[in-house]
Design goal:
By secondary structure, this protein is α/β, with parallel strands linked by helices. The chain folds into two domains: about 110 residues, Zincin-like, CATH 3.30.2010; about 110 residues, 2-Layer Sandwich (Zincin-like). It is built from eight helices and eight strands. The strands form three sheets. Strands 1-3-2 form a three-stranded mixed sheet, with helices on one face. Helix 5 crosses helix 6.
Amino acid sequence: MQVAPEAAGRVARLFEQVYRTLKPRTALASVEVRFRPYANGNCQVQIQSGVLGVRLSDIYLGAPEEILEALAWMVLSKLCRKPVPMEYPNRFRTWMGRKEMRRTMHLVRQLRGRKIISGPEGECYNLEELFEDLNHRFFHGLMARPNLGWSRTASRTLLGHWDPSHNAIVLSRFLDRSEVPREIVELVLYHEMLHLRYPAEHHNGRRRIHTRSFHDAERQFPQYKEWSAALRKLLHS
């Protein structure tokens, strides 16, 4: 990606300063910076033959120096296996949490990101049918149906997620099995549907996904405690 030399030079200077602070006795020949059209705010660093390579999203092209400095401390501390002074993650989160940055990131993910999922009809469960049933039971049938699909892998660690950038709810294929009760699949799907009803809140640069209203609504699911316990048992079976 072609950018003005001064933009790459500014990043290189800041990353070099932070690296030399973290590793004062390590020789550093140069810093090579490349901006990439990533679908998120990625920044990757590596050191090879005395050259520090920095690959970062082009969303940082107009970032203030104090934000680039915070980013450098975060990724280089990890590279050097040293603790990150908390002022830098806090500064970075505050900047990323600003309304205009959230809007930018949402647009970038929409334009560049790809959502690779299977359709809503699985081997045992059809997510569209489950969604419509839950919609009428809990939302008076008023919730607009997003894209629905099963994940390509059967993950036990991520059972479901709501992706606002692609207007999609994805459930793990691990749940699409005959031995999994319908109520468990409904519970996971209902949880993700609540993200549409109760969006994440941002306060002082922090993002709160599960609000009090979210938790209160989740507990309205019939036999919530029992089915939550059954889900935990299933995951550890």
